[in-house]
Specification:
The complex is a heterodimer of chains A (322) and B (253). Chain A is mainly alpha-helical and 322 residues long. Chain A contains twelve helices and two strands, in the order H-H-H-H-H-E-H-H-H-E-H-H-H-H. In chain A, helix 3 crosses helix 8, helix 4 packs antiparallel against helix 8 and helix 10 runs antiparallel to helix 11. The radius of gyration of chain A is 20 Å and the shape is globular. Chain B has a six-stranded mixed β-sheet, with helices on both faces. A four-stranded antiparallel β-sheet of chain B has the order 2-1-4-5, covered by helices on one side. In chain B, a hairpin with a 2-residue loop joins strand 4 and strand 5. Chain B is globular.
């Protein structure tokens, strides 16, 4: 693959490099808070990347994606509470439980379409929310403090802010690459074909249900991993991690960054969370500013931030008018 | 009788409306069999039942000796029964070549391949390019499908049906909305195709039907009122009354 030197590619590369150099800035600028903020951004960006796989590429409008954040987080939290602190146990369990949850939810909800699909995924996520709220042994509504982060082999120490940041960043870049490979594979073309015209896909011989289900499970598992990271980041899990407004935040990140663009959700997560941070430091009514801003993006920039970047600079040759 | 497609007493009702009623139809291997009838005669319903989009209420469908009455569309397509759509139904946000390559991929085993770039697989791209060349769209391969003209969409439909190297084509009004020149080109293309494939053609364009068909079945209100060679159909009194006469009366010839 040869990448062309377009405005968009330059900005994408700049963002990836800036994220990689952030700890250096935090160290020498003496701004430790920015590292904490960006660790959170990177983790949620990964969740948004996973949502984009089903939402942007698969056309599956899931409104319950935060459930996997909670499930991945609680897998780590509950195991830590029970004395199992090895990441080699915690993380695979987080992934497996998320995958299983996605398999069950997907198997049921993918039989419906449109508004019903949105409502049923929302309903299942809220169900998970109320279930963990009722887990009295694990803090119930109040949540659960994690006293020891996931333990891995010697040099890797998740309690080191810089190490943890780089681990999250590596996993984010890894998941972006995985999504990139997936969507260009045979599997990915089937998923996008089903988004474009599901009836036709079935007519030419694809049992689309099982491909969409597999895609749903992959996305859920990936989001479960970011849930495990988030639990380690905050040293705390609570039902709020999987509340429906969090699912909404993830959708906003995807739409803001650009649905169906591999790098889009990373832009979306950075933009939304930085904006939230900046605006809330200016006024406590920051949502009054953020709301209309999002509205403008939805109305006038259909492809989100990534779409705007693609329009900037010289247009690629229009094959249509050859 | 060595029919490739055998339809026995097929029926479909939508509430009180009888869309197809007791249809008996045999298509021999190698023939081009046209199904004609006035609007609402059940032609598209019949195609949908044959391809599996609609399940029949009663009756049986055999294809190459397999009972396919209860098979879902993707399994029928895997047996070599391909359909094209009356209302153009493409992947408009995909490139022309991607559209056809998907049709090839549908017949190339399961698609649980997660890693390799499918757009570089010659096993998918070459047959797709060949199918595009057959319908004369090879120069448009890299265009977005949404940028093609209506006539080119019909050609692309045909290329997709061909790409899976089917045994039999179900064509639902391939001439719909085409200008005279495009229609003539489509007739030429179908004439070339019928040498290699069995075709069931639903079409309103009578000129095209009588130019192409080996046999014709006439549907009216979901029932078969006649079936035979083009000459027999032309001279059949019931058909003239029910259908051709109506057309002549309306001045369409």
């Amino acid at each position: 693959m040869t990448a062309k030197l377009t405005v968009r590619n330059v900005v994408v590369a700049a963002l990836l490099i800036a994220l990689a150099l952030l700890p250096v800035y935090a160290e020498f600028g003496g701004n430790r808070f920015v590292l904490t903020l960006f660790t959170r951004i990177v983790i949620l960006a990964m969740a948004a990347v996973s949502l984009n796989l089903i939402l942007g590429f698969g056309g599956m409008m899931s409104f319950g994606h935060a459930a996997y954040l909670g499930i991945g987080g609680y897998a780590v939290g509950i195991l830590a509470h029970e004395g199992v602190t090895s990441g080699f146990v915690q993380w695979p369990v987080a992934l497996a439980v998320s995958a299983l949850f996605a398999l069950v939810i997907g198997a049921l909800s993918l039989r419906t379409r449109g508004v019903y699909f949105i409502m049923i995924t929302l309903a299942f996520a809220q169900m998970a929310y109320y279930i963990v709220s009722g887990l009295a042994r694990y803090g119930g509504d109040d949540g659960l403090t994690i006293y020891k982060r996931s333990q891995f082999f010697e040099p890797l120490n998740l309690s080191s802010k810089v190490q943890f940041y780089y681990l999250c960043l590596a996993l984010l870049y890894g998941s972006v690459y995985v999504v990139y490979r997936l969507i260009n594979s045979r599997f990915g073309l089937v998923i996008q074909g089903a988004r474009s015209n599901d009836t036709r896909m079935r007519a030419i011989g694809f049992p689309t249900y099982r491909y969409k289900l597999a895609c749903f499970v992959i996305a859920g598992t990936m989001c479960g991993l970011s849930g495990a990271l988030l639990a380690n980041h905050t040293d705390f899990v609570s039902p709020a991690m999987m509340y429906w407004t969090r699912s909404g935040d993830l959708i906003i990140m995807v739409v803001l960054g650009g649905m169906g663009s591999v790098a889009g959700p990373v832009f979306g997560a950075v933009a939304l969370l930085v904006l939230e941070e900046v605006l809330s430091s200016i006024t406590e009514y920051w949502q009054i500013i953020l709301g209309p801003l999002l509205l403008l993006v939805v109305l006038f920039a259909r492809g989100g931030i990534d779409g705007l970047l693609r329009q900037a600079g010289p247009k690629p040759e229009q094959k249509v008018h050859q | 009788m060595s029919a490739l497609l055998q339809v026995e007493n097929l029926a479909k009702r939508f509430g009180g409306i009888i869309a197809t009623d007791d249809i008996v139809l045999n298509v021999a291997a190698g023939e081009l069999h046209a199904v004609i009838g006035p609007n609402g005669a059940g032609k598209t319903t019949l195609i949908a039942q044959l391809s599996g989009q609609l399940m029949a209420d009663s009756g049986r469908i055999h294809f190459e000796g397999h009972d396919i009455t209860r098979l879902p569309p993707y399994k029928r397509s895997a047996l070599g029964l391909a359909r094209s759509f009356q209302i153009t139904s493409l992947f408009l946000d995909f490139s022309v070549l991607d559209n056809v390559a998907l049709a090839v991929q549908a017949r190339a085993g399961h698609s649980f391949h997660f890693w390799r770039d499918a757009r570089t697989e010659t096993a998918l791209r070459e047959p797709a390019r060949a199918a595009l060349a057959r319908v004369g769209l090879d120069k448009r391969a890299d265009w977005p499908a949404s940028a093609l003209s209506h006539g080119e969409h019909r050609q692309l439909e045909l290329a997709m049906a061909l790409a899976g190297s089917p045994r039999m084509l179900l064509l639902d009004e391939p001439m719909a909305g085409l200008g005279p020149e495009e229609s003539a080109r489509m007739v030429d293309m179908l004439r070339a195709l019928k040498k290699e494939l069995t075709i069931l053609l639903v079409e309103h364009d009578m000129e095209a039907v009588f130019a192409l068909a080996d046999r014709i079945t006439v549907l009216v209100y979901g029932r078969v009122i006649a079936s035979g060679k083009p000459d027999e159909i032309r001279n059949n009194a019931a058909v003239r009354d029910a259908y051709l006469g109506e057309n002549e009366g309306a001045g369409h010839g």
